[in-house]
Amino acid sequence: MMALNAMQIFMQLPKTNCGKCGFPTCLAFAMQLANQKTSLDSCPDISDAGRGALEGAAAPPIKKVKFGPAGAEVEIGDETEMFRHDKKFFHPTLLCQVISDDDGDLEGKASKAKDYEFDRIGQVMNLDTVAVRASGDVGKFKESAEKVNSLAGKPMILMADDAGTIEGAARSLASARPLLYRATQDNWEAMAGLAAELKLPLVVYCEDLNGLAELSDKVKGKGVGDIVLDFGPTKLGDALRNLTILRRSAIKKKFRPFGFPVLLETSATDPGLMGALGVAKYASIVLFESVPVSTIYPIMTLRQNIYTDPQKPLQMEAKVYDISGPTNENSPLMLTTNFSLTYFIVRGDIEKSKIPSKLLVVDTEGLSVMTAFAAEKLTAEGVAAFIKKLGLEESVAQKSIIIPGQIARMSGSLEEESGWKVIVGPRDSSGLPKFLKTQTS
Amino acid sequence: MVFEIPKEKWSGSIREITLGATKEEGGTRTSKVIIGGSSALPYLNFEGSAGRKAALFMDVLDTLPVDFPSVVKEEFGDAINDPVSWAKKCVEFGAEGICLKLVSTNPEGEGVGNEDAVNTLKGVLGAVGVPLIVYGSGHFDNDTKLMEMVSEAGKGERLLLGSAEEDWYKSIAVASMANGHRVIGFSNIDINLAKQIVILLKDFGIDLNNIVMDPLQAALGVGLEYSYSIIERIRLAALMGDNLLQAPIICDLSLAWGAPDVNEGDRLGDPVKRGIEWEADTGMSALVAGAELLVVRSPSVLRKMKQAVDELYPGGDE
Predict the structure, then answer these.
(1) A191 with A130: CB under 8 angstroms?
(2) Which residues on chain B are in Cβ contact (under 8 Å) with A431?
(3) CB atoms within 10 A of CB B74
(4) pLDDT tens digits, residue range B201-245?
(5) Closest CA to B296 of B309, B315, B310, B280
(6) For the residues B290-307, what does the mean pLDDT come to?
(7) A108 in reach of chain B (CB within 8 A)
């Protein structure tokens, strides 16, 4: 179904301008609905006929699906873009470790899942979920799932290919709201029945996209509202093409059977490459059979990069950083902005000099040096105040600061404001190694 | 269930560019590489041609910088101390071309003479049969002289010369035109500047069919998202018909090894594997964004990128 415009939506509303939806008029509400900024549920007085007519258009193109225990749940889906530069990607890809219920090291792996927590540029990166896969024995699966749930303390995926195997574990852990995996062409009635009864989200699997669309519709018809799509393990090319087709169908065609997040399997190829592809190209969950930090950490970093809001660049904490090893009160002090890219480039160039240095990172709301200076986010007053606030006169003996050559014009006013000596550095930080050597010699 | 694959209609396509010339064509290469040709988003052959397979070149430096990654050094062993042996090793590992960087010529660094560097180029040309990309040291004054000599020494070989920048493009353009070479237009993660350097080269007389674009591939974790989105935007603009942006894109993955996370010791898992994954993930994102040529550092990454390209390429999953 094509998206409706505000006027088409308005025609279906009560037109009472009662304001209960939080907007002053029905027309204002209709405009918000057209932009998918609010939900039809906010209107208490809409007729059933009106609701029926609008539901398709008002719902987001990709449904938001949540799983995991209340308070610690994870959210996926609810994406609106094909390209991150058009707005942003909203719900970062979940990385999931699969543990087989007959794995001799099940307890060790489950406990270790908690250790995958890394602080990078002020954001915590996690291994988000853990899955338990049934090997055949019903009792063992339930017991293993319960164990993993208590040891890992993460939102879970329960993996079995028949409802009889999954049922015990699903009932036992229902309050932890696991994601059930998976409805197939053979088992879908029983699986969908169980998921609907327990109100749990369900993975729907078919290798073929036509079959997947059909199955998604059937499962929804059984009363399962929260669906995750899965086309099984493939090579990289088919994964890229399938992921793109699913996303495009949902966003551009509003094809409802594909209006759900997608789970990606990595077992048919290099898991690192598939993980990277999934993060860049629309997967909401990526399953890994094993999770060495050396593979997972780079994928987490890629996820951080891709899911950064293009309007809000990654920002460093504003403070003094020690570069090239521990510094002392005689180490040179340099100035740059908190735009992460600028920081990393300057840091790299200082490291090349091998001279332990202090780098003062000031808050410019993520702007680079020249842009910040032009926009008056990098001012002599601001820098002087920050130097004072940090008490740098205590830790920098020479009371001098090196500023980027591009903002040489600031040197006079900064000297006045701060009382510090201001040294104009090279225009480009690539000149820093040479510059620092001449300064310190 | 009626389900139709949602296809985009594109009016543009990426230009095909041939690197390397065989004997019959006036060079001495035993193989050549053709890049570009796609008329769809990367590898989406259901809406157009996927064009040529992305080409995988390997990095060779005529002198090793002190901060050259030890992981890669160990993978190559002794061969890495001599650019000719290094280049041969790359071809043994499966590189389809060599990206030779004559960094030793920087008068502010090693300052090895241009003649020695050109002898290295001749040595590599003699030792391997694959096409070559040749860079100077980035020192504009010296590169002006060096590239003239490179152009002459590689006459007829259809080298790809790197790289023209807004502040320095005339001399490399002349070097490229003089002996039938191709040229890289470099820009610093900015779609407008990417277009600007193509315009400058074109206005100077370079045929658009001889220009490859380098929009700067930032490292994973250190600005990758900017490169990623610029490459996606360039590809979209090219497919929508912007003739100037229809040049194939080269992505050099070597910056990946400079990311601080790569040099973090054991805290973030096995440092050797992490470095390799770091370069590989940088490369993977470049491929799905729209890179037509990758310059790879590590032999392990070359293997991974080979697998990636083979699997991504439609019908190439065998």
Answers:
(1) no
(2) none
(3) 11
(4) 999 999 999 999 999 999 999 999 999 999 999 999 999 999 999
(5) B280
(6) 98
(7) no
Joined tokens for residue A95: 């990385």
| Domain range summary for chain A, segments of one domain joined by + | 6-58, 65-306, 320-440
Among A252, A293, A340, whose Cβ lies nearest the Cβ of B269? A293
- Domain A65-306: give its CATH superfamily: Dihydropteroate synthase-like (3.20.20.20)
**Chain A nearest-CA residue for B236:** A83
Q: Which of residues 186-245 of A touch B (CB under 8 A)?
A: 209-210, 213-214, 217, 235-238, 240-241, 244-245
> For A157-178, how does the pLDDT look when each residue is reduced to its tens digit (9 = 90+)?
999 999 999 999 999 999 999 9
**Partner residues linked to A117 by β-bridges:** A126
CA distance A213 to A246: 10
**Residue A169: which region, alpha, beta or left (left: phi > 0; alpha: psi -120 to 50)?**
alpha
Residue B314 touches chain A, beta carbons under 8 Å? yes
This model of the complex carries an ipTM of: 0.97
Which residues contact residue A340 at a Cβ distance below 8 angstroms, ignoring those fewer than 6 apart? A121, A313, A314, A315, A316, A366, B222, B223
Structural domain boundaries in chain B: 50-312
Q: Model's pTM, two decimal places?
A: 0.89
Local confidence band at A437 (pLDDT 50, 70, 90 cut-offs): confident
User: Is the pLDDT confidence value at B318 over 70?
Assistant: no
* A75, amino acid identity: E
Amino acid at B194: A
Q: Which chain A residues are closer than 8 Å to B270 by Cβ?
A: 292-294
Which CATH superfamily is A6-58 part of?
Electron transport complex subunit B, putative Fe-S cluster (1.10.15.40)
DSSP labels, B169-186: -HHHHHHHHHTT-EEEEE
Q: CB–CB of A192/A224 below 8 Å?
A: yes
Are A429 and A404 contacting, i.e. CB atoms less than 8 angstroms apart?
yes
> Comparing B285 with A44, which gets the higher pLDDT?
B285
- The residues with which B161 forms a beta bridge, in sequence order, are B134, B183
Between chain A and chain B, the number of residue pairs with CB atoms below 8 A apart is: 149
- The architecture CATH gives domain B50-312: Alpha-Beta Barrel (3.20)
Instruction: Give A37 to chain B, closest Cα distance, Å.
Output: 25
How far apart (Å, rounded) are the C-alpha atoms in residues A40 and A26? 11
Amino acid at A44: P
Judging contacts by C-beta atoms under 8 Å, the chain B residues touching residue A308 are: 225
A390/B contact by beta carbon, under 8 A: no
> Pairing relation of β-strands A357-362 and A320-323?
antiparallel
Written as six digits, the tokens of B35 are 């890049």
- How would you classify the pairing of strands A65-67 and A74-76? antiparallel
Q: Where are the beta strands (DSSP E) in A5-146?
A: 65-67, 74-76, 94-100, 117-120, 123-126, 129-133
| Strand (E) or helix (H) holding A217 | helix A209-221
The reply to whether residue B6 touches residue A118, judged by beta carbons under 8 angstroms, is no
Q: Give the pairing of strands A156-159 and A129-133.
A: parallel
The topology (CATH level 3) of A320-440 is Rossmann fold (3.40.50)
